[in-house]
From TrEMBL:
Locations listed in the record: Membrane
Keyword annotations of the record: Membrane, Transmembrane, Transmembrane helix
InterPro entries per the UniProt record, alphabetical: AA-Vitamin_Transporters (IPR050638), EamA_dom (IPR000620), EmrE-like (IPR037185)
Name used for this protein in its record: DMT family transporter
Residue ranges annotated for the EamA domain, each copy included: 29-154, 166-303
Naturally occurring in which organism (per UniProt): Caballeronia jiangsuensis
Annotated membrane topology: Multi-pass membrane protein
Domain of life: Bacteria
Lineage: Bacteria, Pseudomonadati, Pseudomonadota, Betaproteobacteria, Burkholderiales
Family: Belongs to the EamA transporter family.
Bilayer-crossing regions: 21-41, 47-69, 81-103, 109-131, 140-159, 165-184, 196-218, 224-249, 261-280, 286-304
The keyword Protein transport belongs to this UniProt entry's keyword annotation: no
Amino acid sequence: MTKASRPCLAAHSPAIEALRVPLPALEALMVIAWSSGFVGMRFSTDYAPVFLVVLWRCAVLSVCLLPFVAREIINAPAGLLLRQAAIGLFALTGYIAGVAKGIELGVSAGLSALIANLLPVGTVAISSIFLRERISGRTWAGMALGMAGVLVVSRDALTLGSAPLWAYALPVAGMMSLAVASIWQQRSASRAGSLSLLPTLWIHCVVSCLMFACLQMSQGSVRPIATIGFAASVGWTAAISTIGGYGLYWVCLRRSSPARVSSVLFLSPSVTFVWAWALFGEPLSWPMLVGTIVSGLGIVVMTRPQGSSGGARRL
């Protein structure tokens, strides 16, 4: 592999990128698949510890994807592989461990989901405070609308839970971990070569598999549970949540900015409740529809094209 060819890998290998699907369509699919993760986490807790399910979800994907990524992984520079491993630790391990462990310790699922969906706020805050990027008034206004919509949608599901006070920092840490990984991935890919989607996912799953094996061993056995429920939990979260939601997140990030891609996830609570209605019979309400509309307006405000004023980059 030549040095010049590396930046082009991402544009040609994954089938979904080669199709040149319009970005809004990819973002819609991403939200649907991403939201399935919260439902899958709830479903999984009936059959096994969350870390055990995530461990085997990553293990299954590591094995299944290997034949499709081996050649590119072998030919990739060591520095690129190490960088992706570090990004994977932040993006997959850090995010899931923070949110899942918070729920396990007693943070309510509704509050954990709300904190996780503060990802646009975390992304913009990091860009503004640490990277000195100027944030436009339109972005702040769109974020305020998006958050208002999320609060309206989630209001009936929000309870404090029974967790110790420090446990509420875990979902926040998980959300910020994914925000850091998103910005790191986008900025590093623009300066150096990048892997295509499937090898990226494979590396993230391998390092996360190792980390969740350590986390689960500290709590109990890492052996899979021979039940249909456990197998369904692993299959659901591997195929829909990881390949679908997590994979599409990185596909969208290759085409746009972290602020835009994460802002679309303001719709995740609404779609999560639709998943819960379809799978568990949980009721829907008019406030959910109103909140969805408000969040949608916030996304339109944040993602609407605007002229560049030159100088510092604006979000």
